[in-house]
Specification:
about 15% strand, binds iron/sulfur cluster, binds FE2/S2 (inorganic) cluster, two-stranded antiparallel ribbon, 9 helices, five-stranded mixed sheet, about 240 residues, elongated, Fumarate Reductase Iron-sulfur Protein, Chain B, domain 2
């Protein structure tokens, strides 16, 4: 089938402003939007820029806005786009470096602020720091995050408040706050107990809707809020020092 693409183009070094360019590609229904992009670049326009690596929903590098929804180009099948035109744009709210490539630096810095690594000062055991199945269960699906940024790019709060940590950073905070092996749980909770932290989320649910790894992002943020209430404010008598 023939597919018509309208693709955002902008090279800040030479263009006076963004514009759209149109392409037509022949593709099978089982092919992916990423295959179409590769065909456009390989056969029609080598100047088109976008990111990709694994091609299988693992690296998180090909997050785009496809017909208005942020998602991975490698997980979007041609057969799901029965429309006259497929519009590809960079992730909204991110600075465009070129065409569909956005600057991820601020996003990744925001995640680094939450120290996305295990903090445990005890001497390392001979084998590994173990968890019971029940302790692992508490982490839920957040460990699937591939840092694609689709959630943060879709979050209306992130668009209007640059101070807000954003859903992806809060997913990473959750990842370690609920890890039984981490020793800085309270400090991590204090860090997100802030209007620009967990309390910045007002339950739009856009993050949950777009997450390609089906992480219940909003639910996880609400769980963080409850944990702040319990562990920092003593709601349910569980306050810790
Ligand atoms: Fe992507 Fe989901 Fe992680 Fe957000 S939570 S960065 S949408 S994988
Ligand atoms: Fe790696 Fe899509 S190319 S997630």
């Amino acid at each position: 089938m023939d597919l018509h693409f309208k693709i955002f183009r902008f090279d800040p070094q030479v263009d006076r402003g963004p514009y759209f360019r149109h392409y037509t590609v022949s593709a099978e229904p089982e092919e992916r939007i990423l295959d179409c992009l590769n065909r456009i670049k390989g056969e029609q326009d080598g100047t088109l820029s976008y990111r990709m690596s694994c091609g299988h929903g693992v690296c998180g590098s090909d997050g785009l806005r496809i017909n208005g929804t942020c998602r991975l180009a490698c997980q979007a099948l041609v057969r799901d786009f029965q429309c006259p035109e497929i519009v590809l744009e960079p992730l909204p709210g991110f600075k465009v470096l070129k065409d569909l490539v956005v600057d991820m630096e601020k996003f990744l810095e925001g995640i680094s602020l939450f120290r996305p690594y295990l903090i445990n000062r005890a001497d390392p055991p001979e084998t590994e720091r173990k968890q019971t199945p029940g302790e692992r269960e508490k982490l839920g699906e957040v460990i699937r995050c591939i840092l694609c940024a689709c959630c943060t790019a879709s979050c209306p709060v992130s668009w209007i408040d640059a101070r807000y940590a954003g859903p992806a950073a809060l997913v990473w905070a959750f990842r370690y706050i609920f890890d039984s092996r981490d020793e800085d749980r309270l400090e991590r909770l204090r860090q997100i107990d802030h209007p620009a932290g967990a309390w910045g989320c007002v339950n739009h649910f856009e993050c949950t809707r777009v997450c390609p790894k089906e992480i219940p992002v909003t639910k996880s943020i609400n769980q963080l809020k409850r944990e702040i209430g319990k562990k920092l404010r003593g709601e349910s008598g569980e306050a810790e020092k």
